[in-house]
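Retro notes (design track)

What went well: tokenization of the new backbones is finally stable.
What didn't: we kept losing track of which sequence belonged to which structure.
Fix going forward: every design gets posted as structure first, then sequence, in one message. First example under the new rule, 218 residues:
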């Protein structure tokens, strides 16, 4: 799991981002002022920084220009001007998100940057289940277990969003693609198979009227 610095002066947004990233196992530190970034960066090794542009102290562009350590950056900003995006990306930002954004999308982008910078865990272990993300392989009690590509997509989505409830519609989109016109009951059928093969009856929780959640001890 990664160590992430959140630089955002709007407390509610900062807290919301932190809580969501902590749910999936990341360690986060919140900063509310651009001029405080280097002080915190000196004390910790961060794998990623989420950086707002409009900040007190020093704005996001100044922060990235004065940074004493190399930290991959995703810009967060209410501005959607093309010039700002280009400026941010030219300064070395890995990605750029315009507020307001969807938390699942932010999480997906965070994981994508961590994958690019090789900071994400390639292996997930829970009890006697081992999942190799890159190789798309699953072991249970030392034996390799076969899953269809869609079932593996479901397993991966549940793991990457562990402890977060995912709706059947979201899972259908992730596992079958956004243009697939299937029935959400398809998700139930495949979740049933996954639960059975991995003895995950108590690990994949059914969320009433919504969908499913992979429950992992924090
Ligand atoms: Ca701001």
């Amino acid at each position: 799991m990664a160590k992430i610095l959140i630089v955002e002066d709007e407390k509610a947004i900062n807290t919301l981002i932190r809580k969501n990233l902590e749910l999936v196992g990341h360690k986060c530190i919140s900063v509310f002022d651009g001029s405080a970034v280097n002080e915190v960066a000196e004390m910790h090794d961060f794998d990623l920084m989420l950086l707002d542009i409009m900040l007190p102290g020093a704005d996001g562009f100044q922060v990235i220009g004065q940074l004493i350590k190399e930290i991959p950056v995703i810009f967060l900003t209410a501005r959607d001007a093309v010039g700002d995006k280009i400026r941010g990306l030219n300064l070395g930002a890995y990605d750029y998100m315009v507020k307001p954004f969807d938390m699942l999308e932010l999480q997906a982008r965070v994981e994508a940057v961590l994958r690019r910078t090789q900071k994400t865990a390639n292996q997930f272990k829970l009890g006697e289940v081992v999942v190799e993300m890159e190789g798309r392989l699953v072991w249970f009690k030392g034996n390799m277990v076969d899953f269809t590509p869609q079932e593996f997509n479901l397993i991966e989505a549940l793991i990457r969003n562990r402890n977060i409830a995912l709706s059947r519609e979201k899972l259908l989109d992730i596992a079958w693609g956004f243009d697939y016109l299937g029935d959400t009951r398809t998700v139930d059928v495949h979740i049933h198979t996954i639960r059975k093969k991995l003895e995950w009856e108590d690990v994949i929780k059914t969320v009433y009227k919504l969908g499913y959640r992979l429950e992992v001890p924090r």
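Added context from the reviewer: The chain has a mean pLDDT of 90.
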